[in-house]
Amino acid sequence: MNNHLQQIEAAIAPLNKQLLSHSLYQEVQSIEGLRLFMEAHIFAVWDFMSLLKTLQTQLTCTTAPWVPVGNADTRYLINEIVLGEESDVDEDGVRTSHFELYLKAMQQVGASNSLINAFLGYLKTGNSVQDALKLAEVPDYLQQFVNTTFGFIASGKPHVVASVFTFGREDVIPEMFIRLVADIEGRVPGTISTFKYYLERHIEVDGDHHSHLALEMTSLLCGDSEDYWQEATEAAKEAIASRIALWDGIYAHLLAPATNDI
């Protein structure tokens, strides 16, 4: 790992420590708590896919007529990640995206997908992300999280999006989910096998192969530009702070038993 990547990891270490010691993990200990968690967390799974496709659009040619875009190394890196995220296999060996796998896990657990489906429905009819969030009456803390992500996307800077993707998501997701999966199987046996598979698959794929690819991609995009590396560092810090705020919102919801609605 080059010095710039090490400097980013050092800069985000305090935020990662705060994230990985969040009180939320202690609250997702029942099937009811897991359902509420998943109903909110699905938005992070969705906007992760949006980061992924943004990078593919920025770093490769996705329209016809085809023309070469960027360099072959970054094209290879993002296309390999897209392949795994968008067309992996479920526990039965059936091709699926990680987002669709998560929806399947929600169905098995008994979590409602009405909010995420309403949001996607408004997107499909041509509404902007911001308008779709409002029309679907998505809670403020989820709106803030998604809007922060799309602020990065709107920057039009591949090195910024790559840093968010790498350090705000790919690099930190495995450790977060390890903490969630540790005790949950024994607490609700037979009802979370798909979710458990999703977590294990995420840890296996994103925590190893994809994280290395993403680090290499970020390094190539920042190159020798100190300005790019500084922007990448600030974006990584903001992305993790946004994740902490999301965790705060889910945690507050789990502690408010008056309603089961997100």
Structure description:
The protein is mostly helical and 262 residues long. It is built from twelve helices and two strands, in the order ααααββαααααααα. A two-stranded antiparallel ribbon has the order 1-2. The model has no long low-confidence stretch (mean pLDDT 89).
Question: Can you tag this structure with a few keywords?
Answer:
mainly alpha, 12 helices
Question: How would the blueprint of this fold be written?
Answer:
Blueprint: H1 3-20, H2 24-27, H3 31-59, H4 72-86, E1 88-89, E2 95-96, H5 98-109, H6 114-124, H7 129-135, H8 140-154, H9 158-170, H10 173-187, H11 193-222, H12 226-254
Antiparallel strand pairs: 1-2
Helix pairs in contact: 1-12, 3-4, 3-5, 3-8, 3-9, 3-12, 4-11, 5-11, 6-7, 7-8, 8-12, 9-11, 9-12, 10-11
Average pLDDT rating: 89
User: Into which percent range does the helicity of residues fall?
Assistant: over 70%
Poorly predicted runs = none
Q: Trace the largest sheet across and list its strands.
A: 1-2
If you compute it from the alpha carbons, what radius of gyration comes out, rounded to the nearest whole angstrom? 18 Å
Sheet bearing the most strands, described?
A: 2 strands, antiparallel
- SSE order, as H and E? HHHHEEHHHHHHHH
Terminus-to-terminus distance: 41 Å
Number of strands: 2
